Amino acid sequence: MITVVEFWIRGGDRRGRRRTAVAIACALVGGFGLAGGGRAQAAEAGDAAAPAVRFGFFRAMFRDVNENDIRASLKAYARAVALDRAIRADPDPMLFDGADDAAAALRAGGVDLISGSTPDVLRLPEGLLTGPYLLSLSGDAVGTEYQLLVRREAKHMRVADLRGRSLVLVNSSSFSLAVPWLELLVSREAQADPGAFFGSVKVVNKASLAALPVFFQQVDACVVTRAGFAVLAELNPQLARALRPIATSPRVVPILSCFRAGYDPAVKQRIAASMATLQDTAAGRQLLTIFQSGPIAPQDEDALVTTRRLFSDHAGLRATGAGSLLTPAP
Hints:
This protein is an alpha/beta fold. It has helices spanning 2-10, 14-36, 38-45, 67-82, 99-107, 118-122, 178-189, 207-215, 226-235, 237-242, 265-275, 282-290, 305-319, and strands at residues 55-58, 94-96, 113-117, 129-138, 141-142, 146-151, 166-170, 200-204, 221-225, 243-248, 255-260, 296-299.
């Protein structure tokens, strides 16, 4: 199972990833039933008088995976969260294309726990969501730090020195705040329009494909997570010797799970407790791998202060008419 999951996360063609997603989900669903035994049956039954917990996800979290594969994985996720807490879970999580349909479902009480990239979640109207917020840990801390990397021999290079140069970005949910952070950085430190700053911007699907072109001097700079670069450098110490960060973001939360406002507080606490122990079982760890998540920690509003500030500042930048790194000026 571990090698199969690693193949899906790390590479393979699209059809291979899709087939593997189905295999993982089916194995996980079966694994929960075998490992959980009577507990799994209890979790499915739960409190017969209580409505089933309804999970919702923004579709953009799942790239290069088709609808059926997504739903198979999410059914396993819903069942995992319900284990050991006798929580009834709706076996068919909802998928949202954008803020409008997610907001409609929240207002109608059609979804109780919603997950997505932080920009997707924060675009929802105020008053629809509440904590505890279920956030991923990186090491012992909540959130992610991004780093802008260049070759180490460029000793005195600053952000402004990258004008007209080439950049590689990673397209995944864990990088959902990388572009907003970098656009603000370019605007503030280079006094430039982000959409007209870099000579070229390429998007790849994993950190190694961002860092290696910089290492081989094919590209001038890339953005990776601090934790991701540490893993790459451990596997290939030459990377750590050849590359260095010229800017590091504050710690922010790129993926966010939170509850519908007005949802039963007692059930919220039980779900939060279940999510916090996913990493304690083999099946739960596999699910965290699928969602590219570290252990989950329930947090209050204070954990989102820096993230909300970044999101707000970036919205202000866009309001000025500044361009985007992903849609460079002609």
